[in-house]
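Ticket #4471: structure export looks truncated?
Reporter: QA, pipeline team
Priority: medium

Steps to reproduce: submit the single chain below to the structure queue and open the exported record.
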Amino acid sequence: MSAARQRRIADALDAKILLELVREPRATVAGIAHRVRAARNTAQARLSRLEAEGLHPFDHRVDAAALGYPLRAHVMANLKQSRLDEVGDELGRIPEVLEVIGVSGTADTLIQVVARDTDDLYRIAGRILAIPGVKRTRTLVTMKQMVRYRVTPLLHRTIEGG
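Actual output as written to the record:
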């Protein structure tokens, strides 16, 4: 069974706690417990479990543009299958690589990167292509983010029992 299927599904109380943290990231456990109508110890135990299971309670991300990386792109890479782990390790060493996802279809991985400008993107794409096991890449430059990453609608659906 996959790790995703082994993880316990968040219930309505978990969703309410996470939603409170989305609304107020600096909320105290006591404050959260009061707003979700749960005992403080229950809220603390739920938060500890959620964190241990990798559910990060924030619906926002640090904006890479504010750090000097306004250009975002996705690099689709075809890999030598016997080197998947090695390639993943090498990609993790590139600071501008934000996320690497294994996919099916026309590529093996989808790599989200940020860059200072197009020359910097060219350098980063070259660094990715130079990794042993990377056979071919295609770079897609993000023109506009039309829907920001969010989980709030899923939290509301979970609370509503959907």
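Status: closed, not a bug. The export was complete when the record was re-opened. Leaving a note from the reviewer for reference: The longest helix spans residues 40-52.
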